[in-house]
Amino acid sequence: MTERSEGPRFAPDLLTEMFQNPLDPGYADAAARRAAEGPKPRWSRVTSGGFRLLVLVAIGLLFAVAYRHVVAGESESSRAHAGLVDEARGAQARTDDLQGQADALRDEVAALRAEALGAGSGELRALREREAATGLAKVTGDGVIVTVSDAAPQVDPTTGKQVTPEGGRVLDKDLQEVANGLWAAGAEAVAVNGQRLTATSTIRTAGSAILVDFRPVTSPYQVTAIGPDDMLDRFLAGPAAALLRGLKTQYGIDFATSRRDDLILPAAGTDIPLRFARPDVSPSPTPTGGG
Fold it and tell me: Which InterPro entries match (predicted)?
């Protein structure tokens, strides 16, 4: 009966193997083949070197072309962005000019109406009061200013640029809360960054911008209100001020309030479309004849 020889129970240690056979088997085979065949001919070495040089030159050309395309793309993108910015500024300037013309025409109409109705007539006085209440006329008086601004920017450790921290940007709903809080506190007229609010005004977000009646406003946002003397105290005791305090504590959004005398709020930029109730035109029952 033949006895089988058992192999080692454990594989050789890796470090021991490296010290015993420091040369990789592939290198050993290549060295043996070179010793047996002799050195490569000169033309083969020159051809191999030329091929490597050609590959390196081609790779360099590819990198150069790619770099030029990237630089050209950035330049074209910058020019397109600058063109859009100029176009937006031009459109804003034209809008402001048209708004100025509309205000001048509104003043002219008001003067002609006062001349027709009489400067001291009760009808003219009642009409002006209604216009002031609806936002169609400029108003003056004592009131308050609530200023709300985005949180202070922080330096991004990755890019090194200043960015607004997450949650530190004022939203459209925040300005809605402030405006509604002032109305609830007794405000008679409210404006956001000079944009007069009416019964049909909207405060909405478009991208990263806030629009008040489709006109952009930027931080810091000044919500101005004309109203009774206790309006600021009532506002600070209401839910809108509590919301602002929470935003300041949690996200760093800043707000401040102040009382002001002789505030001037402009008229609304656009006319308010009038809506009328319509009478019921259903036929009434035919009365019965009497004796």
Answer: DUF881 (IPR010273)
